[in-house]
Write a structure and sequence with these properties.
Layout: H1 2-31, H2 35-71, H3 89-122, E1 126-131, E2 136-139, H4 141-147, H5 158-161, H6 163-171, E3 177-184, E4 187-200, E5 203-212, H7 214-257, H8 269-299, E6 308-311, H9 312-329, E7 332-339, E8 344-347, H10 349-367, E9 373-381, E10 387-393, H11 425-435, E11 439-444, E12 450-455
Helix pairs in contact: 1-2, 2-3, 7-8, 9-10, 10-11
């Protein structure tokens, strides 16, 4: 830059002049007795030194002003026309450009902050942020409406809203979710809460989001009850209808032979056979109805998981051994794949094995009328790092619209005889996976087989 070139030349010229004056002064002191000249040169040397110092300090003054402007975020000043000479114009221009850039960055930052504040205040999910001291540093509009408060100052302020809410927030750790039911001013809330913990300027913060899903849960609950009621009504009517019809038939047959004048009823062999068949049918349907009720009772009485550490390969091998005979009878092949071989899992091995038995049994039932039926039992780690177990078959598959309905208790998909199940296994299996904090998902496409994924 020309500034540094001109500044360097200016310093060299002044130093050379000062050196020349000093040499002349030394000569006069040592070789002559011109005391007046010596005194004048001494003053000149002093003046040159002062001038050199001021010349050098001009840059320091500019740098000091520039650094102070940055330190105190004061970008209102200007670095132009400060009577420092034309040599400093370029430096002034550089400083001015830097200050303008800082002003732009600050303006952009303020706009981003205002934008984020607007989003936070208008978002439909309640947000509350606490610092390490338990002080509330953020409370958006949705949270104020949800908790019916104008402000919150500390975590303890939640006690005034609901003790249940305060306890749930205190227990909720970063990265965890929670579902809490509480009542605020006679209004029932089902709060889905999610917490995030972070540090900023060496201070810990916890951000908690609150979403009232009471209405959605009620709708889902009503839908679940409707589905269950439809299935229950269907199964019960299937049993009650023939029972009622046959009971009426038996009654009619007996009434035909019943005489008010006689105490006895005469029945021929054909009529006895008809009555016996009707009673047998009534008995069979009654037993079927009892089995149905017992299945429903089993569905609602699942034991709590007893977690243990075990190898995935072992539980897959046990399941395959248990189902081997049934698979051979239906001409179905079972393959096991585990990657890595040492893959281990923390869960209840007995409940996990029960889920696997249900899934493999369903797959065998689906493949019973198909040639070259194959079932793959796979254990692996997915991209997110979670352990999954998959049961895949090359059966006919089902429509995507039916993928969720198969988990409704007692719901069955087509088929008859051996290929038709009780409709309880998949519902029971999904409930077991939920007790493990996991999930059971079906991916299927008509004509391309089905895959059940157990995600832990």
């Amino acid at each position: 830059m020309s500034f540094y070139k001109n500044f360097r030349i200016g310093v060299i010229v002044r130093i050379l002049l000062l050196a020349t004056t000093l040499l002349l002064l030394m000569y006069l002191i040592l070789e002559t007795q011109y005391y007046v000249s010596i005194a004048i040169l001494t003053v000149v040397v002093g003046g040159q030194i002062v001038t050199l110092i001021k010349y050098l300090e001009r840059t320091n003054v500019l740098l000091t002003r520039f650094l102070e402007a940055i330190q105190y975020s004061d970008f209102t000043g200007s670095f132009r026309n400060h009577n420092l000479g034309s040599n400093f114009d370029e430096l002034n221009e550089s400083f001015s450009r830097v200050i303008e850039r800082f002003k732009e960055e600050r303006s952009e930052k303020e706009e981003s902050i205002r934008y984020l504040e607007t989003v936070v205040q208008h978002i439909g999910i309640g947000l509350v942020c606490f610092n390490g001291k338990g002080e509330v540093v953020l409370l958006n509009t949705a949270a104020k409406r949800l908790f019916k408060v104008a402000t919150l100052r500390k975590t303890e302020s939640l006690l005034e809203i609901s003790e249940t809410l305060y306890t749930a927030v205190q227990k909720l750790k970063g990265g965890n979710r929670s579902l809490t039911r509480l009542s605020i001013q006679n209004e029932t809330l089902q709060l889905a809460m999610y917490a995030t913990e972070f540090r900023m300027r060496d201070e810990a913060y916890k951000l908690v989001s609150f979403q009232n899903i009471h209405t959605e849960l009620e709708e889902k609950e009503m839908e679940a009850w409707q589905n269950l009621t439809q299935v229950l009504a269907h199964e019960i009517m299937n049993s009650i209808t023939p029972i009622s019809s046959l009971s009426s038939t038996v009654k009619m047959l007996l009434e035909e032979r019943l005489s008010t004048e006689k105490e006895s009823v005469e029945l021929n062999t054909e009529m006895i056979e008809d009555v016996t068949d009707a009673l047998n049918t009534i008995s069979n349907r009654s037993q079927g109805l009892m089995r149905f009720v017992n299945s429903y009772r089993d569905f609602t009485q699942i034991p709590e998981p007893q977690f243990d550490f075990f190898k995935v390969r072992e539980v897959l091998n046990r399941t395959a051994s248990l189902m081997e005979m049934q698979a051979k009878e239906e001409g179905v092949q079972i393959n096991i794949e585990v990657e890595p071989e040492s893959l281990e899992l923390t869960a209840d091995p007995h409940l996990v094995e029960q889920v696997l038995i249900n899934l493999v049994k369903n797959a065998i039932r689906v493949l019973s009328e198909q040639k070259d039926g194959i079932i793959w039992m796979r254990g692996k780690i997915e991209e997110s790092g979670k352990v999954i177990i998959q049961i895949q078959d090359n059966g006919p598959g089902i429509k995507k619209a039916m993928s969720e309905k198969v988990f409704i208790p007692f719901y069955t998909v087509g088929g008859n005889g051996k290929s038709r199940g009780s409709g309880i296994g998949l519902s029971l299996s999904r409930q077991i996976m939920r007790l493990h904090g996991g999930s059971l998902i079906l991916n299927s496409e008509k004509g391309k087989g089905s895959t059940f994924t157990m995600r832990f």
